[in-house]
Structure formats: structure tokens, C-alpha cells
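Standup notes
- HV: blocked on the assembly model, inputs below
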Amino acid sequence: MSCFILEQAGIDAPETLADVLAAAETIRDAGIMQHPVAMVSGAGWNLAQEFVNLYLGHGGSFFEPGSAAPAINNDAGLATLEALKALTSFSNPDYLTFDSNSIQALWEAGEVALMLHWGSRGAGILSGDNAAPEIVEATVLAAAPTVEGQSRPATTLWWDGFTIAANTSDADAEASFLAMLNGITPERVAANSELAVWLGEGYQPTPASAGVIASAEGGAAPYPMTPYMGLMHTALGDNLAGFLQGTASAEETLETIEAAYVTAARAQGFLN
Amino acid sequence: MKHRTFFWFILPSLIAMILFIALPVGSVFVQSLHVEHEQVLRTVENCGPFGCTEETVIDRAATEELRAAQPLGRFAGLSNYTDRNHLAFSELGVMWERSDSFADFTRRAMTLPFWRAMAFTLTFTFVVTPLVLLLGLAIALGVNALPRAFRGPTIFVSLLPMIVTPLIGSLILFWMVDSRGVLGAALQTLMNDPNLSLKASPTLTWIMLMVYGVWSSAPFAFIVFYAGLQTVPEEPLEAAMIDGASRWQRIRYVVIPHLMPLAVFITLMQLMDNFRVFEPIVGFQAQANATSLSYNIFNYLRGDAAQFGAAATTSMLTILGVVVLLTPVLMRTWRDFNRKGH
């Protein structure tokens, strides 16, 4: 969020989804910006990721417990669609083509006031390589908003780790493990704090990681790692745009997404 | 030519065609009849940096056993062709019952990936192909009428859109039509509508993609027609002039009939090329408003679970579509060929 614009409009830093929407409305009504909100809402994978974030924030789960059967056609799904529509109504009309690079550019050009963006982009914006100093100064990274009545921020945590293949020889595995451990010593982590959000000893949070850390502390969920989640993500990405453009109702959209997912999950052997 | 000589003459191309066309198409067809194995799932406790959870994972060893027993996957007959991703007859039936008007039925059918892609692909093909022919001919006639000294540079400039890689060309236009790009901003000022966006409206996106299609393919038609114009004989043109034919009449009754075989050739190439439209959809990030069969194939194959069966089925249907499109043109050529004396 941009603290200068929030001050100019006389609003406190938004914490919930309703706060974000109210702030956007105030900024628009005050005539400061016509399209104050940006999110990674390009049709396809990106838009699906926004749905995943908001849906988990609404307390939803994607599948029937212990099964690959879809379970998004419910109140949380409907509320998520409405939230997406409300947020994108404050976005530039091109929002269905927005990827992570294009909204970062919008921010650096000072054309938006509130942005739901990937935490990994914080460092790039704050480095000031592409943005004017006043934009960098106004940029505040905060936790993803929570949904009313829910506790965890509407976002997912993506993290990297090490893997060693099971068929590696013991000697190679040991050497690789030592090399990788050497790469995350507290000194090395401390020396490279601004490059990533490290999940280990020696890490000092920087302004660039403040949002990610706050979301994690708020109890944000990791991205669901079930094997059929990728198919759900694709089904979401292919079918959300119709709802936002008004060619399909929310109920129809959720039904279409479930039907698309079931077709793919059958062909991939997850459902019969 | 003797049959034996003909056989040895054609053999190298025959081998190449079998290796590089027939076998791959055959293997894609076989793939399209199969779906993945049943995945053996089990629940494990998974501990990450944010706590431990019960998680479902694929039992790799058990799934690997199934895979070794049947490397192609489970045989599924034509189910890939009839499922929701492709012809979707049962889904269309349900939609028909639920709709209160034909427009409502069309709107619902446009959520089915195959029919949605087909709608754009066919519109694109049948709008772009004739426009490319017309524009190509017009540029060729124009360039041919220029003084010799100007022709070289003009030809070079006219060919540029074809030289630009399609993905790069569409990306450049994509930036230009952005609401902050030179064309997008100019349009907003001209129409006096700050919310006008070429990328947001389905209709405008379709028009933009087709304009791009014509822009990038017209040079091909132009250069073929221009080459053809160099072979138009002088005598019938002079005779037509003496008979008092205007410039338009000379073009209509002498030049165009002479160029007809070239027009058939360009039509064939363009029908095939346009039916495979792909790059502009990616370049313009237009998948919210327009998808094509080739885009669907791409979409099935990327992502963390590549859907080979669905991709293979769409590929086969694309080939079938090209055959259906080309048949009338080829039949016409064949009839002309037979008429010309054999």
C-alpha cells in the first residue's frame, strides 16, 4: 500500500478485505485515482492463484476430506468470487492481462495505491531500481488482508527447500547435503537478508520481507500440496474470467470449474 | 513414367513422410485413446516449516507398477473425444435443456473448451483468409504500379511484418494497445472514454487479434501475387486497352484470372495457418476472451500435470478440422486439373 495516498485520503492502513475495498472506494471517490487497486489477475494461472489465496482466506477447502472430489461449490466459493469481482472493479480495465511484472510496473509508475502482490516482489520495488524515490518511500508492505470472521490472512506461503533424490549414492547425498547446509549458515543468511525471506537461524527481517513475515505470523496456509491441486488450479484459471466479465453467474462458474476439474481428474486417474 | 522408376523416384520422400508425418500422427492418435493410470493415493503426515499436516500423496512405487504393466495408460476408447474437454455431447444436451433461448445456449456452450476454441478459430480463419488475399493483391498491384526505383525499398518495408517473429510482433502490438501505450492512449483520447480498453472487451480483443492476423500474413500473399504479376503477358493487356477496358476491367478480366492458381495456393496455406492460430493469443494474453485449438493443446501440456490424452485428442481434432477445411479447395483444384486435359 502507498502510505502517502492513504494519508492523502485520510484512511488508516487496511487490515481486512472490507478495509481494502472501503479504502479503494474512498480513494476513488476523493478523485485521487480511478483504479487504485492492482492484483496479479491475468486470466489463467495468475487469476486462479488469486482465487486460491482468497478462498483459503474465506476458510474454504478445495476437496472433500480424504478424496480428490472437488468441494468449491459452496458459500466460501461464492464469497470468494464476489470478493474477486469487488477487488477487480477497482482495477484498471486491462486487469485480465495483468501478470506479476505488469503490476509491479504499475506500482513503480505510481498508478496504484493498494496492491495484492507476491511477497517476493517487495525487494525489487524497495530497491528503487525502477521506481522514483518518493514511490519507494511511500511503499509499505503489510500482511495479506484477512476476511471478516476468519483469522488467517488470505494468501498462501510458497517456500523452497532442498531435495535429494532417493537413488543418489550415499557419498553423493552426504556431499550434497553438506554443501547445501553450508549455503544456509547463519552468517551467510545474515549477509544476504535482503535477497530472500530465509526460514532459518540468523535471518533478520528487512522492510522488504515485512509483509511475508506478518502473513506467516498471522497463520497463512502454505499452498495446498495435494497431487491433484494442479488440475484444480488449471480448471480455476480457465473458467474464472467469464464470471468477472459478467458472462456467467457465480453459481454457474463454480459448477463449470468443478465439471472441468472432474473431467481432468478422471483422465489423470484421480477420480473414477 | 514407369511404375518402377516412379517408385524409386518417390521413395526418399515417402520414407521421410512416413517417419516424420505418418508415425507421429499415428502415435498421437494412439495416445488420444488412452487416459492415465489410476493413481494410487495414500495419506502421510507431512511436516514443513509451517507445521505438520495430514496430506494425500501419490504412492509412487504402486503407481510405477501399474505404469510398467501398461506403459500407454488405461485404454479409454473414444471417451477422450466425447468428454467435456472435446465434443461434450452430454454436456451440450444438458445445456440445451437448461437454456431458455438460443443465445443463452450459446453463452453456456462457450464454457466448453473445445467449442469455445472452435468458435474463435473458425471466425479467425474465415475472416483473416479472405482479407489477406484482398490486401495482398491490393499491395501487389500498388507496388507493381510504382516506378522501378521505388519498388525494392517498398517491397522490403511491406515484407517486414512477416519477418518479425509472430510472438514478438504480437507482444509489441500488445504494448502499443495497452491503455498506457501509444495506440491505446490515442484511442482513448479519440473516443473520449478513459475506460476504453482493447484488452478488456471480448469483441475488441477478437478484432485486434484478426487485425494482427491480417497484418502478419498479408506480406506472404503480397509477395506471391507480386511474383505472379511479373508473369502477366503484355499482349492480352494491350488488347484489352485497345478494346477500351479501364484499369479496373483489365485487372478483373485479365490479371485476376491469370493469378487464380496462386490465389488457390495462398488460400490453402492461409486456411491451414489460420486454423492453427496460436502465437497472437499468447502474445496478447487474450485467453480470457479468445482461445484456439492450438492454444488448448498448449494449455493441456503445461502446468504441473500434463494432460497428454486431452492434448492428443485436440491435436487429432485439429488435423480433422484442417482436412475438412481443405477438402473443398483441393476438390476444386483436382477438377480443374482433370479438365485441363488428361
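- HV (later): unblocked. Chain B touches chain A through 50 residues (CB under 8 Å). Chain B has a mean pLDDT of 90.
- Next: hand off to the docking folks.
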